[in-house]
Amino acid sequence: MLTCLKKTTRALQQSIIQNLGLKANILIETVAKVQGLTTDITIFFVPDYSLMRTLEPHLFNVATSRAREHTIIVMDKYVFEYPTLDTNVRIYLETLKKDFCVYVSSKIEEKGYLQNQNRFLFTALETKHL
Fold it and tell me: If you write DSSP's letter for every residue of the chain in order, what string do you get?
């Protein structure tokens, strides 16, 4: 599981360990620390805060090119409203939104599966580079 911010990484590490226990085959780290590493599956979490830093083209490319098999991107549905979103990142996300996207509604969240609202789960069956 990847994110760009240390604060978010620490929160995810703590939550996963509390809920699943310490697992040797689960890595939760910042994008910067995994540069050059390859995984089978990558989950890239884009928090509501610091979207532009997280979606900066170089970091986004690193985060979305780590997986051999499958990349999942979790982000707020309002990211497309940001006018400063990089053109290549926007095109990549819009393509995924059209072809491989699941929107998690507030009804599911009310049951306690997710803490935040309005999330898109993008899944790229093939890892593609920007």
Answer: -EES-HHHHHHHHHHHHHHH---TT---EETGGGTT--EEEEEEE--SSSHHHHT-HHHHHHHHTSEEEEEEEEEEGGGGG-TTS-HHHHHHHHHHHHHSEEEE-HHHHHTTS-SSSSEEEEEESS----
